[in-house]
């Protein structure tokens, strides 16, 4: 091989080695770094048992938008002060946005008015008139209550009393559901009695009393998933109660609630697309982080369903997302 040819091959080899070294040190080919957005979700309960589909939506959005999610539950129910302390703690620990389901919107708003939160807040509920709140995703709770009332009025005579169960009537969203339900029941001449859980056996005592001589039958309407679940477990646990409870109505989309409806324990439920709610909350959080999105209220539709609707294509996508 001629000397000149050897020099040429050596020159090319040197170039290849040089290019390899450049690329391996990111001087030429730089790997695109994926930005991760830490977002915390502070729910309004001490357990996440009733957030199954909401969490599925959150997890899907987290995958789509590269979000690192922290899911925070309360230490005690109905404690707006400690909930807002959790919000502040999460922001101090590095959350670029917080998704908040307020236990008491008025109290939480008061805290946010006086606190300088360094990250945007997305509300799982109604849009609060506070600068740090950039978006809200919710259902029309009053309309949800009306739909439950309309179903009861269509299926029962007003001579039957309606026992209304609630985990916490002071929670504003439960209060809105109650107002919608009450407006329809009063219009149709139904008598009502409200029972808020004060002890572990509050609902059981009410249901047990229906079997006493002279008590008669009644309808049970639950304002939240927790009370719906407990009432269904009590009524479904004894065939005797089924003869005295003319119908159980509630709200929620957890697998256990849907199973109780499939068994015929629950007559009807108000549901919404909780998967979309979770997904949209995360999506709006990312938008607020990236470009400080304009304030926006998103209201999702609610539906009244019965057992026959569980296998309908329209509702399967809402009740069993990505199963």
From TrEMBL:
InterPro entries: Peripla_BP_I, SBP_2_dom. Keywords: Signal. It holds the Pfam family Peripla_BP_4. Its main location: other. Residues 41-290 form the Periplasmic binding protein domain. It comes from the Bacteria. One of its GO terms (cellular component) is cell envelope. GO terms for molecular function: carbohydrate binding. It is found in: Cell envelope. Belongs to the bacterial solute-binding protein 2 family. This is Substrate-binding domain-containing protein. It comes from Clostridium symbiosum (Bacteroides symbiosus).
